[in-house]
Input
Amino acid sequence: MKNYLLIIVFTSTLIFPQEKKIDKEKLVNQVKQEFLHAWNGYKKYAWGHDELLPLSKNYKDWYDESLLLTPMDAFGTMKIMGLDKEANEAKNLILTKLSFDRVISVQVFEVNIRLLGGLLSAYQLDGDKRFLDLAIDLADRLLPAFDSPTGMPYRYVNLKTGETKDPVSNPAEIGTLILEWGTLSKITGREIYYSKAKKALEEVYRRRSTIELVGTLLNVEDGTWTNTDSHISGAIDSYYEYLYKGWKMFGDKTLKHMWDVSIYAINKYLADETKDGLWYGHADMNTGKRTSTLFGSLDAFFPAVLVLSGDTARAEMLQESCYKMWMLHGIEPEELDYSNMKVTYPNYALRPENIESAYYLYHYTNDPKYLKMGEDYFESLIKYCRNDAGYSTLKSVITKEQADLMHSFFLAETLKYCYLIFAPQATIDFNKIIFNTEAHPLKIWK
Ligand code: DMJ
Output
């Protein structure tokens, strides 16, 4: 009997020789410590400002006045991690200092995903009505952005004067609003927010080509495309994300139909299988002809959306490619050419998408290989991006030279998804919440 047991133990180590036990509890605590390291750096060198410059130990504001991007982006992560003291610090700062009564022209997309999403999420997580009051004030100041001839928002609007600028926008900036604006409609009972955001999505969709693809740039005044390159990368990415998540959050069948039509075309014209796996490349929106074989860190959001929408097979294949992209130089580049696996943009911007997708896949499949991916990703962040003031972007994943910026989304998304991979699965219930594209959790209303 004894020998028989030994044989079983021996055989199983032969079958899974490389599999070392991953200590989730240890990793969860380590992520929390690293989050605190980044937050303390912000507190010490950038308190009250938008973002930390960790190399010069200084700060950066996006506009003439700070909009507290880092505390806004960090608050929900602190709540999820149980960092109550830090959450209170951030909350006090936000509620005493954040004001939108400013003569500044802000980028609607960025302010929406980071601030409006952050405030609504904070209200739902914390219950303090002052978060909601700020959210309503912000949304009302952003409303003039939609006053274009097509109803698609201008890229910039002045928070005080309502003056708009920059009519040449893109599907992502026009179509990444409905989770936040729809949530606001549900909470306030004012339909206007949902209908403005939905109209914007529909106007992009209406301009899709006959083969159901959208391009990179379009003019919100005359509705024409100025760049017809189609892909799932930056400038288009979260337009698709919000079609699916919008359906999941509000049960709006029009959005589901738009997603179904779009994903069919994406898989037909953009998906590309090479000896290195499944990728999604670029093609002309009108002809479907391949224009380039580029894929990057932003595109790595797609496995998450695929698995969320039920296409686990493609999600898993694509995530394998995303992992290859990451491991090529030990940390992922902004972009590579998957036809020869050569880096085309060598920087790493502390982006979350690859880690986000590993988290979703682990959540939905329970396959330990995603846990291992998470561990590899987290270890390389510490190895290459950490410094004594916080975390830095990299100028190049080849030289590993650091650059002087810690994006606010590093605290909203990158470290949140690292944490969630190792945290108990029940921490997030995807039947009850949806993450907006900045990883702010919002309640499902369906
Ligand atoms: C974030 O602001 C959001 O995830 C957005 O959708 C894309 N860019 C950054 C992270 O890479």
In short: Residues 37-443 form a domain with the Glycosyltransferase fold (CATH 1.50.10.10). The two ends are 56 Å apart (CA to CA).
